[in-house]
Design brief:
The protein is about 35% helix and about 25% strand. The chain is of the alpha/beta class.
Length: about 280
């Protein structure tokens, strides 16, 4: 692809040993990959959550829900607080956020989509039949527009995020909000680490946004960024250890012994200020 998928500008250059493209106009960065739906389902099969990207996603439920809850609480400071009456989540994984949002608003509606069939089966089994492994892009639109759309750490995985935002735009109305967390490749740490930045690992991460490029994408489909922040998150110490010493490596007995000594619920709250939380409102 010799043009930017966000702004369509042709002034692009290859960076990081020609593995990524960078737009000189809107600052968006992406990997020029073509992945079909079947390839994506293979990428995000059960192993992705158990041993590949994550050490054990299920074991991190409480920590993940704690992060979700803190993000929701921060939204109360908006001028008109969200109602969460009709919620869409794209990239619902095992349903932990869906479970939480239904606890906070039992009378509200919720629908979650994820390409991982194993994750969706788990979510439907444990948290109600409100989750689908159907491709969101071909799903039926809701009878009532969504009031709130969540994309937690998912937009960077999508081969075609523009299509998702466009569809979301048709299924929301004035006053609806979209909430996105994703890496900011223009932040200090990724600029310092360059191709060693932990978020750069295509084909699972394909798109790398900046404040400028994510705001531009959303604005093109009727969303105005209200707030972009860099909140701290709680991280499982096991996950941190796994990412540093075991992911894509062949750990020895000593490394495995140390890993198994770490309590599953042990966590630490950190902020590397390279993960942005975007809140945008439909105008």
């Amino acid at each position: 692809m010799n043009f930017c998928p966000v702004c369509l500008d042709k002034h692009t250059i290859k960076i990081y040993k020609d593995t990524l493209f960078s737009c000189q106009n809107c600052s968006h960065v992406w990997a020029d990959l073509t992945l079909d739906e079947e390839q994506l389902r293979i990428l995000y099969a059960e192993n992705y959550f158990k041993g590949e990207e994550y050490a054990d996603y299920l074991a991190d439920k409480l920590i993940l829900q704690s992060n979700f809850s803190k993000r929701l609480n921060s939204l109360r400071r908006l001028q008109d607080s969200p109602t969460f009456n009709n919620v869409l989540e794209i990239g619902c994984a095992y349903g932990f956020f869906g479970d939480l949002i239904k606890q906070k608003n039992p009378k509200g509606k919720y629908m979650g989509f994820d390409i991982s069939k194993e994750a969706v089966e788990y979510a439907n089994q444990h948290f109600g039949n409100n989750f689908s492994s159907q491709n969101y892009l071909v799903s039926k639109s809701p009878e009532i527009p969504y009031t709130d759309v969540f994309m937690w750490d998912v937009i960077e995985h999508l081969p075609n995020p523009i299509d998702f935002i466009e569809k979301v735009s048709t299924e929301t109305t004035s006053g609806s909000r979209i909430y996105i967390t994703t890496g900011d490749i223009s932040a200090w740490l990724p600029r310092k680490q360059k191709d060693k930045w932990r978020m750069i690992h295509p084909p699972t991460h394909v798109h790398y946004f900046t404040k400028k490029s994510i705001s531009k994408l959303l604005r093109q489909y009727g969303f105005q960024a209200e707030k972009i922040s860099y909140p701290p998150v709680s991280r499982s110490i096991r996950v941190i250890f796994y990412s540093l010493f075991m992911l894509n490596k062949k750990p020895g007995n000593f490394t495995n012994w140390i890993y198994n000594l770490i309590p599953e619920k042990a966590s630490i709250r950190i902020n590397t200020r390279d993960i942005m939380f975007v809140v945008a409102k439909k105008y």
